[in-house]
Request: fold
Amino acid sequence: MVRNFVSRIRSLKREKNAVILAHNYVRGEIQNIADFVGDSLELARCAMETDSDVIVFCGVDFMAETASILNPDKKVLIPDLGSICPMAQMLAREDLIEAKEAYHGADVVLYINTLADCKALADCVCTSANAPEVVEAMKSDTVIFGPDLNLARFVEKRTSKKIIPVPEYGLCPTHHQISADDVLVGKKKHPGAEVVVHPECVLEVQEMADCIASTSGMVRYCSISDVDEFLIGTEIGLIYRLERELPEKQFYPVSESAVCPQMKMHTLKKVEMALELERPIVAVQREIGDAAREAIERMLRLS
Ligand code: 13P
Ligand code: SF4
Reply:
């Protein structure tokens, strides 16, 4: 059955000159057939550089939107439209407008985990791979930053800027539930393991880590570290990629329940259907897309 899907997907990809881009958290079956698997920054770059006519984006809504903004003339498909990032939903355009009025003159840096209508109001976008360097590059001393409060705290500790978080308590439900106790339990079981976490984790967890990085940054750290056991503090889909690329090393999730259900919605069957029907299409209204593109491209120039 799986073999049938895979061969059908391969032939549809050739027929339609399509590329499959997948985030590090998607199911293993999707990571196996993707042309590229990576973090948000790598995927945005890949989407910008591809010469394919169709991009099948196996990730959440804001990632597919970003690909579409960077490629307004290409067809961007998302296999399951329900793949919506709850963190991106936490920032309302109205809250951002209010913050801009309250902190007049402050630059706005938005995490890529936001929707296009908010990105259109930003001076620059950032990802977990470049947030401190992007924020430091802003002209103003005060920077409005959203929606993730944990990433905002991470940035605040690594830059000279005063950070105004918008909304006040934006978070990723998957990462926010990973606790310092989970890390302690993991360290007790695996005393020789290094702790590698994502900056969407709470500050207490970040402070216990040997490395804090984007999902692909976590993979790079594990590949160059002399240690061969790691406690991984992020969505558990990353473990699949780590085990595939570094089979000689051991990886343990800090929390088994750190699952992003929206990332798991894409299946081989849905990828095949998306390619076959060329639906569902992700498109962004031209005016919003043009404004958002400026903020995304500024990030790509800065990092
Ligand atoms: P990365 O850009 O580090 O892959 O993170 C994206 C994300 O949604 C993490 O929850
Ligand atoms: Fe959004 Fe969190 Fe899922 Fe990442 S893991 S896509 S931030 S809900």
In short: Residues 2-84+263-285 form a domain with the Rossmann fold fold (CATH 3.40.50.10800). The radius of gyration is 19 Å. Residues 60, 85-87, 113, 172, 174-175, 200, 235, 260, 262-263 surround iron/sulfur cluster (ligand 2) (CB under 6 Å). The mean pLDDT is 98.
